[in-house]
Amino acid sequence: MGYDTVHTAHDRSTSRSPYLHLSPISNLPIEILVLISRYAERGTPAPLVGSTLNSLSRVSRSWRAIALGTPGLWTAICDISVPYVDTLLGRSGNRPLRIVRMMEHGLRFPEYMSLVSPHIQTLG
């Protein structure tokens, strides 16, 4: 996702809220918000990355627009559930994926492979 696309998503989200200017976080540059999200993603165990990013996307409309508009944040794919894996694959775009297979829980291997195999060319 390009710089202009992230800015466009941010502009759309901030134009809807007349009270957004009251929040100090709204004054942070978009690049800082992306760095915060990437830092949170890198420091989180793979099975928890999605929930961490989902939490960050609930801070404000602008954070949500930025998080959802930055496919590189959604590339850690864990095998928790079919809808969750589908959501992450959609949000990751065509970015290289970091796939983690949890043996003790999650999807059965054939089911998991049927979800991720169409994206095999994007594995990094």
Automatic annotation (TrEMBL):
Pfam families the UniProt entry points to: F-box-like
InterPro entries in UniProt: F-box-like_dom_sf, F-box_dom
Gene3D superfamilies in alphabetical order: 1.20.1280.50
F-box domain mapped to chain residues: 25-78
Domain of life according to the entry: Eukaryota
The protein, known as: F-box domain-containing protein
